[in-house]
Amino acid sequence: KTEVILVAGEDELPASAPLPIPGATVRRSVGDCGTRFTVVLGGETVGYIEVDTDATQAGTRQEFRAWADIGNLHVSPSRPWTETAVYLLVAAADWLRLGRIERVLAYVWPEEHDRHSFLTAHGFRELTRTDRRWQHESTATNR
Questions:
Q1: Closest-CA residue to 106 (of 118, 124, 86)
Q2: If 0-12 CB within 10 Å is exposed, 13-18 middle and 19+ buried, where does residue 128 land?
Q3: How far is CA 72 from CA 5, 42, 47, 141, in A?
Q4: 14-37 pLDDT, tens per residue?
Q5: Contact 102, 67 (CB under 8 A)
Q6: Residues with Cβ within 8 Å of residue 96, at least 6 apart in sequence
Q7: Sign of dihedral through CA atoms 105, 111, 115, 118?
Q8: How many CA atoms, within 13 angstroms, populate the side-chain half-sphere of residue 60?
Q9: Which residues, including other chains, have CB under 8 Å from residue 54's CB and lie 6 or more apart?
Q10: Which residues, including other chains, have CB under 8 Å from residue 31's CB and lie 6 or more apart?
């Protein structure tokens, strides 16, 4: 499967905006793929985004010290996707700016046209595509 990798500079990400969901709050916690920002409304999780700020691979790749990675972006099917996703992206971007992150990576599958369009409309551009079916030549010939 081919993965599309997108990148945005911190200055290309959306700027601060008021929460578009009256009565909702945003919580920051530890998530599966990094720091999680969760929008909660009446005890229900409306959506969340997770960002990993250690792109250095535990310090072994210092050239990526100012890079972050969006690991998860999820919006409840009961909510308007775009307005909630924009707010989640804004919340994460504001926090990343505090940490002096300069670049943010995001990932989509080629068939995720809506998600790809959303990300490119909000500061991301395609960096590369990675074929996840790749096999080392010696492995492929030994089968």
A1: 124
A2: exposed
A3: 14, 22, 10, 36
A4: 887 777 788 888 999 999 988 999
A5: yes
A6: 10, 13, 51, 53, 68, 104
A7: positive
A8: 2
A9: 34
A10: 48, 50, 71, 72
Residues 6+ apart with CB under 8 A from 57: 64
Q: Which pLDDT band holds residue 3 (cuts at 50, 70, 90)?
A: very high
CA atoms of 91 and 31, how far apart (whole Å): 15
β-bridge mates for residue 130, sequence order: 3
Residue 33, number of CB atoms within 10 A of its CB: 13
Task: List pLDDT tens digits, range 53-83.
Answer: 876 666 666 776 788 899 899 999 988 888 8
Q: Residues of 13-24 as b/e, b for ≥16 C-beta within 10 angstroms?
A: bbeeeebebeeb
> What pLDDT is stored for residue 29 in this prediction?
94
pTM exceeding the 0.85 threshold for the entire prediction = no
Closest alpha carbon to 67 in 109, 39, 34, 19: 34
